[in-house]
Amino acid sequence: MVIYGTALLSGCLLVGLALGRILGWAIGIPKNIGGVGIAMLLLILICDRLKQSGKMGLSMERGIAFWSAIYIPIVVAMAASQNVLAAVSSGWIAILAGVLSVSVCFVMVPILSNMGKEEDPKL
Amino acid sequence: MNIIDFLQKDVFIKYNLVTAFAVVGIMLWVSYLISKHLTRGRIHGSAIAIFAGLVLAYFGGYWMKGENGIADVPALAGIGLMGGAMLRDLAIVATAFGVRMEEFRKTGFSGILSLFVGVFSSFFVGACVAYAFGYRDATSITTIGAGAATYIVGPVTGGALGASPEVMALSVAAGLVKSILVMICTPFVAKYLGLDNPRSAMIFGGLMGTTSGVAGGLAATDPELVPYGAMTATFYTGLGCLLGPSVIFLLIRLIVE
Q1: Nearest C-alpha of chain A: how many angstroms from B77?
Q2: Residues A52, A87: one domain?
Q3: Nearest one of B246, B240, B252 to B138, comparing CA atoms
Q4: What is the number of CB-based contacts under 8 A between chain A and chain B?
């Protein structure tokens, strides 16, 4: 059944969010720490198990695949509900801080990726 | 009551999530047409759609004087639900379906390193800008630096340190600017950053940290990379909220006071 896939996906998200929130509480931050990341790991691990034991049917996969496929439209809706006006009319401090931090981080991407490559042969 | 009024109230507002699906669908359709015919596929359809979303959000904010972009227009309120944290996180987790565990293990250390480098460098850059604009107290400098990390780290750090509302607003704005820039610029710079494999996507997510920016930027670059970037980015805000009011504040206070 398709709903089994969606239910599994939802279950992973809920468990991940709960663990992330507990992690935040444990170190004294009123926020969710990595809940979505934990949920992604859970989903990957559980799906792996289910596939290996042959319990993951095609219709169950569809219940997850739909949400994966609807991701880009959701991101477009997210973009459309951002407070763009505040960002654009916030003055130079905010704009400069944003622009410079993005530029610096962009430059770091190839540097850190190359470092990663050097590690690999040793592993 | 004329026909437009009651249609709006009884159809579009009442079924606002359905309206959102239809409107976003049309936006994507038009964007892919523009991509194919006006840019000959050089600019990805989803990049155009995300940009169109941001433009709509600007006008939504201008007309409605709200904080949720076009979603403050009553008939389009469903866009806020569709693009809100709940469905966004569900869809991000779903993208992990079909991802290989091996890729995460291979990037493990670089991914974690990228998180720390990302958080510290954003704070540093934001703090320098704050200093350059005449802020001299550690609380304000740290809060603006936190905003340069993400627009959630900003107010959380500012709240913990007791920053002024004016500084808090600047900090949120800096985070918004960052998130929007990452959405728009990523597809254009992807080639130069080597952003074409899971490893660099994970490092990118860790360095940038803004979940919405990374989610939008990678979606417009290559949807296959989304789960990798999102995975690391989701830890960034937590790390920033942890380090900001503690280690980074103490460091900044040591330097400026």
Answers
A1: 9
A2: no
A3: B252
A4: 325
Mean pLDDT of B154-171: 82
Tokens of B204: 């990118």
- Give the chain A residue whose CA is nearest to the CA of B244: A29
A73 and A48 belong to one structural domain: yes
Q: Rounded to two decimals, what is the model's pTM? A: 0.81
Shared domain check, A49 and A21: yes
Whether residues A98 and A65 fall in one domain: no
Per DSSP, B152 falls in state: T
Please give the single-letter amino acid code of residue B234.
Answer: T
DSSP, collapsed to helix, strand or coil, labels residue A63 as helix
ipTM exceeding cut-off 0.85 for this assembly: yes
Q: How far apart are CA A111 and CA A3, in angstroms?
A: 44
Considering its fold, how many domains does chain A have in total?
Answer: 2
Angle, CA B243 vertex, CA B239 and CA B101 arms, to 5°:
20
Token representation of residue A88:
């654009």
Domain hosting A95: range is 83-123
Asked if A43's CB is within 8 angstroms of B93's CB, the reply is yes
Give residue for tokens 């905003």: B147
- List, for residues B240-250, the tens digit of each pLDDT value: 888 888 888 88
Which residue type occupies A90?
Answer: S
Instruction: Give the number of residues written for chain B.
Output: 257
Q: CB of B216 within 8 A of CB of A4?
A: no
